[in-house]
Specification:
The longest helix has 52 residues. By secondary structure, the chain is mainly α. Helix 1 packs antiparallel against helix 2, helix 2 runs antiparallel to helix 3 and helix 2 runs parallel beside helix 4. It is elongated and about 75 Å long. The protein is built from four helices and no strands. Belongs to the SAA family. Major acute phase reactant. Apolipoprotein of the HDL complex. One of its GO terms (cellular component) is high-density lipoprotein particle. Keywords: Acute phase, HDL, Signal. This is Serum amyloid A protein.
Length: 139
Amino acid sequence: MRTTIGVHTMKLFTGLILCSLVLGVHSQWMSFFGEAYEGAKDMWRAYSDMREANYKDADKYFHARGNYDAARRGPGGAWAAKVISDARENIQRFTDPLFKGTTSGQGQEDSRADQAANEWGRSGKDPNHFRPAGLPDKY
């Protein structure tokens, strides 16, 4: 009878270990996706603020700020910031010549500067480095 209790106890113990591993991995993914969601909201907030401010030479500041805020959420936020930033720049590569009349050289130069500001913010550096003088404190 003793071996039966030992086998059942071992099965229960093994089951508990496996469940805790699965739940642990599950919670890590949920955390990552939660960070990504909040990071995407940070990026949207920075974009909305940029559109509202409509302030000359402020776009690099808003790029850096959105990426900075998103990356502070954790790995999921940093991932979301990179995906959104890269997608935005890739889309602009096609839309700017059509709607703004910029040449490919102008667009590439601006895109590189935007991506540098994005990386600056994602790396945890102060986005105020790009803040233009006179931008209202609200932003």
